[in-house]
Amino acid sequence: MIQGAKSFVLLLAVLAACVTAEQADEQPLIFPTEENSTEQPAAALDASADKPRPAPLAKCAGEKEMCKPPAGCALFYADDDEENLQTCILIPANETTNATLGLCCENVLSNRIKQLLLTDDNRDQLSPGYNTGPELGFISAADLSASSDNGKSFTDKLETLEAELKKSGIKVESDTPSAGHLRVFNTTNEARELSLKALRLAAATSALTNRLGLSNPNGELRQVDLQNSRLGESCPPVPVCPVIGGKYRLHDGTCSNPRRSWIGRATSPMQRLLPAHYDDGVQVPRSARDGGPLPSPRLISIQLSTDGHRAPQDRRLTALVADFGQFLDHDLVQSPSFQLRGGGGIQCCSQDGASVLPPHQRHPQCMPIEIPFDDPFFSRFRQGCMNFVRTMPALTHNCSLGAINQMNSVSHWFDGSTIYGSEGQAARNLVGPRGTLLNNGNRGSLALLPAQNGGCTRRRQTENPNFCFVAGDNRVNEQPLISSLHTLLMREHNRVAGILAAMHPEYSDDAVYQETRRIVIAQLQHIAYNEFLPVVLGRRFMETYGLLPLASGHSFDFNPNYDASVTNEFAAAAYRLHTLVRGDLKLSNNAGDSRIPLRDTLNSPQVLLWPDAGDALLSGQCSRPLGAFDHVFSEEMTQHLFQGRGGFGLDILSLNIQRGRDHGLPGYNSYRKLCGLKRARDFADLTDTIRPEALLVLRRIYRSVDDIDLYVGGISERRSSGALLGHTFLCLVGDQFARLKKGDRFFYDLANQPSSFSADQLNEIRKTSLARIICDNSVGVTRLQPLVFWQQDDARNPIVSCDSALIPRMSLEPWIPEVPNT
Q: Half-sphere exposure of 188 toward its Cβ, with a 13 Å CA cutoff?
C-alpha cells in the first residue's frame, strides 16, 4: 500500500489526455490510499451508536468552522473521526419550538489539485488511442484499397448471414432472460450503421496487419491518413458549433469542448487508459497468459460469490446509494449490444440453452458464456450456455485504424441526459407547454412520466402487460427505483419551470425549458459531488483530486485540453456497482413496510401505478442498509436477473466479467501498476489489496496472476479508508469524475463561461440536496433524514420534517433579472 508519507501526485491519465496509452503503461499513477478496510461488524457499529454524544456547541470551536445544515457538511460526514462533526445550534430555541441543531464543518474554498505530474498545456492533447506509436513510413494506395475491399466483404457476408439467421428463426425469443436483457441495450438504426462501418474498419485493420506483417496494429496504424481513401468515406462529420451563444448544452454532447467539438458526442467511442488487449491486436478477446482459455465467467461467479443468500450489508449507508449510482451511470454511459438488422436480438445458444450454437449458425458478434455441467443452479434447468452479445464498436472522429473501441450511445457528459435525452428530436418529443416536460397527468397529486405501450414485462395478471414509461433514457423501466428517480427529476424540472414561467411571462417556451434544464443539471451535479461521491470516493481522496465542491465563489478548473470522454475501464468494470444491490425493493408508508423480490421488478414498472408507490419506494430505500461492496452478490443478481418463463435468469457477475473481455480490458495486474502499486509477480503479492477469502478463490481459478480480470480483482479488494471502493476502482472511478469536472465548460460552479451562474444563483444551487428534491416532489414523504445516503442518526442526521431548516430550500429569486440566451 502507498504510505501516507509518500508524496502524492495525481494519477497520470486523469485529466492528461495528452498521454498516449503506451506512455501511460510505462508510468505509474499514484494517489492517496489510506489504511485498510474500515468495515466493522454490526455489533461494533451498534456499540458505537450507544456512545454518549457531546453537547451541542453554541458556536463552532474551529476558526474556519461554521454551523451548517447537514448537507452543507456532507463532504465531512464520511470521515472516520466522528469528532470532526460536532453538533451546534443552527437556530436557537424560542417559546414554541426547540433549538435546531446543525453540524460544524469548514468551508471548502479551494479545489486545486495538490500536485500535477503533467502541467504543460502546450503539448499535443490527443486522447489515448488517437495517437499511439510511430508513424509508418509508407502504405501504398494498393494496400489501402485491398484492405478496404476486405472490410466491405466482411460486412456483406454479415448481412447475408443475418438474413439466413432470421429465415431460420434463430433469434432471441420473447419472455426469456435474453429478451429482458436486450431491452436494457436497445439501440437505434443509426447507431447500428455506424457500428457496421467500425466493423468494416476493424476487418480492414486485420487485413492490413496480415498484409504488412505488423506486430502492433493498434500502435502502428493509428496515424494512417484515411481521408482520401475509400475507408475515409465512413468518417462522421466534425460538428460545427454555433458561433454566437453557447450558454446551453447541445443534447448530443457536441460542442462542450470548444477545441474538439466531437468529444463527448453520443455514439462516439469511449477512450482507454491502457491499450486494448486483444489476441490479434484488433478484436479477438484475450487468452490466458499460457495461451489457453481464460476460466469461464460463470465458474468464477460460482466460486467467488459463494454466499449470495447472506447479502452482506453496509449498516452506515442506505440502499439509495445503489439506486442513485445506477441513475448516474445511465446519465454517463450506455454500451449498446449488437442487434440484427431491422431489430431483434442475436441468439448465441441453442433454443433450449443446453449448448452453444454451431459456428455456421452463430453470429460473429456472439461471445456466449459457458455454464459448467455441474452448476449448482443452472444445471437444474439443463442450461449449458448463457447468451452474450458483444458491444457495438464505434468510429473515431478521424476513422483511425487499430483495435476496436466500444460505443457510448449517450452523451459522455454529466448533463442530465437521463432526463432530457441525448438526441435532438427525441429531446423535443419530451417537451410540453411552457418549457415543462410531458407527463401523463396527476396521480396521487403528482404527475407520473408519460406512458407508452409495449416493451415491458407482465408480472401480475391484473396489470397492464404493455405499460412502460417514456423518459430521456430508454432504461427508465429497468427497475422501479430508476423509474422513481426519473419521475422525481421530471417533477423537479416542472416545479422549477413553473416558477420561472411565472417570474418571466415574457420568456418563450424554449427559454423556460433551456434555463430550467440548466438549473436542474446544476442541481444534479451538486448532489453528485457534494453528497454521493464523498460516499463512494471519500473526502480525502476527493481533496487530492481537486474534486471537492466549493462552499462559496466560483471555480476556475476548466481546461479544454482535458478529454472528459468516458473511459472504457470506468464503463466496463470500475463503475459497475451491482454488488451493492439488495435482493428486493422495500416500500415504506403509513400502512407499514412491504418488499418485492428484485426478479419481479425488472422491466416491470407497473408497481408505480399503485397510489404513491414511488414515494413509498424512496422512503423504503432511505431507511434500509446498503449492500456491501465486495465479491458477494445477491442471488437475485446471479441466478434470477431478467428471469423469464423458465424459472431462471442471467448472472450479472458473469456478464460483467465477459463484458470486460469483450471490451479488451487488460488484466487486473496491469491496472494495479497504472494506479501506483507494484505489478504482482505471483498471487502472494496481492495480499496488500485483495481480501484473504477472495485470494484463495483467485488462486484456485486462475493459472496466472496476470489472468485475473479487472472486474474480479476490483470487487475482491479491501475497501480504502473513508471510501466505498478499493484501491484500483477508487483510482479508475476518481479519474473519470475528475475528467467530468475539469474537462466540461458547462460544469455548474465555473466562472467566466457563457453558461456561468451568478454568485447569488450559485449560492442557491448549493442549498440543493437529494432530500430536498424528494421532499419537494413527493406526497407521501413528509419526514426524512437530511443526508439520505446515510442512515438516520439522532444526533447528526436525524429524521426531521420536510419543512425543517436542516433541509434548506433553493430560492429562484436570483433568476429574476436573468436574460436567457437561446
A: 15
Give the catalytic positions in this structure: 330
Using CA atoms, how far residue 11 sits from 8, 18, 109, 676, 732, in Å, is 9, 13, 23, 8, 9
Cα separation of 156 and 162, whole Å? 10
Residue in the structure block whose three cell numbers are 509508407: 138
pLDDT in tens, 14-55: 444 333 333 444 344 444 443 333 333 333 334 344 556 678
How is residue 276 written as a grid cell? 486494448
Q: Check residue 751 and report its DSSP letter.
A: S
Residues 6 or more apart in contact with residue 749 via CB below 8 angstroms: 549, 550, 554, 555, 757, 762
Mean of per-residue pLDDT scores for the chain = 84
Q: What is the CA radius of gyration of the chain?
A: 26
pLDDT at residue 82, rounded to an integer: 52
C-alpha cell at 130: 488517437
State yes or no: pLDDT of 129 exceeds 60: no
Task: Please tell me the total count of domains within the chain.
Answer: 1
353 close to 384: Cβ distance less than 8 angstroms: yes
Three-class secondary structure of residue 449 per DSSP? coil
Q: Could you write out the three-class secondary structure of 598-610?
A: HHHCCCCHHHHHC
Interatomic CA distance for residues 654 and 297, integer angstroms: 5
Burial letters 205-234, b for 16+ CB under 10 A, else e: bbbbbeeeebebbbbbbbbbebeebebeeb
CATH of the domain at 754: 1.10.640.10
Write the CA distances from 810 to 74, 628, 770, 807, integer angstroms: 17, 33, 12, 10
Q: Which amino acid is at 649?
A: G
Q: Does the pLDDT of residue 662 top 70, yes or no?
A: yes
Q: Domain residues for 314? A: 1-822
Dihedral angle sign, alpha carbons of residues 743, 822, 474, 586: positive
Whole-model pTM: value is 0.90
Amino acid identity, residue 50?
D
Phi, psi of 717 (to 5 degrees): -75, 150
The lowest-confidence range among 82-86, 288-292, 445-449, 789-793 is 82-86
- Cα distances (angstroms) measured from residue 299 to each of 112, 142, 702, 775: 45, 47, 11, 45
- What is the C-alpha separation between 652 and 478, in angstroms, rounded? 14
Give the whole-number percent of the chain exceeding pLDDT 70: 85
Q: How confident is the model at residue 2 (pLDDT cuts 50, 70, 90)?
A: very low
In this predicted model, what pLDDT tens digit does every residue of 570-609 receive, in sequence order?
Answer: 999 999 999 999 888 888 887 778 888 888 888 888 888 8
Mean pLDDT lowest among 286-300, 315-329, 535-549, 701-715: 535-549
What does the pLDDT average to over 66-79? 89
Phi/psi for 662 (5° steps) reads -55, -40
d(CA 769, CA 530) in angstroms, rounded, equals 9
Residues near 803 by beta carbon (within 8 Å), at least 6 away in sequence: none
Of 54, 4, 56, the C-alpha closest to 30 is: 4
Beta strands in 377-466 (DSSP E): 385-386, 407-408, 442-443, 446-447, 451-453
In the block, residue with C-alpha cell 439466413: 164
In this structure, is the dihedral angle defined by the CA atoms of residues 531, 536, 539 and 541, taken in order, positive or negative? negative
- The torsion angles phi and psi of 720, rounded to 5 degrees, stand at -75, 150
